[in-house]
Write a structure and sequence with these properties.
The protein is mostly beta strands. It has strands at residues 2-4, 25-27, 49-51, 73-75, 97-99, 107-109, 118-120, 129-133, 138-141, 151-153.
Length: 155
Amino acid sequence: RILSLSQNKLESIDLTYIAIDSLQSIYLHSNHLTTINLSPLEKAIHLKELYVYDNELTIIDLEPLLNNSSLEIFDCSHNFLQKIDLRPLKNNEKLFRIGLSDNRLEELDISPLMRLRYLDVANLGYEAELHAKSHFQSRRIPKGLQEYSSLITWD
């Protein structure tokens, strides 16, 4: 139920040959991963937690998580991401926490995730802009937000 390969100085990982379908938690944090192919996670319908923080990721494709309705926590903090498309996570009603702090994101559209409870966006960079929209209101979180808060919470 748990795959833990954290703190192993891994530079790459192939999830193809791992019994993904029964996993609930995947811990790949604190390695030296520059890329990660999440395609095998299309079958991980019971996956609740995915931790890939503290690596050297420059890009991550979340499309394989499109049909996952169990994911609750996704942490991709402390990487080198310049952009991330969160739309593949929009139909997941259980997702309540995303960590994206300490990346190089230039812009972040969180409008697909208005059900989200916790979003950690500390230290995105001085030029970062965050956008959030819903049917009832439009929220524009100004540049420099990370100077005032490391965690956005909405009810």
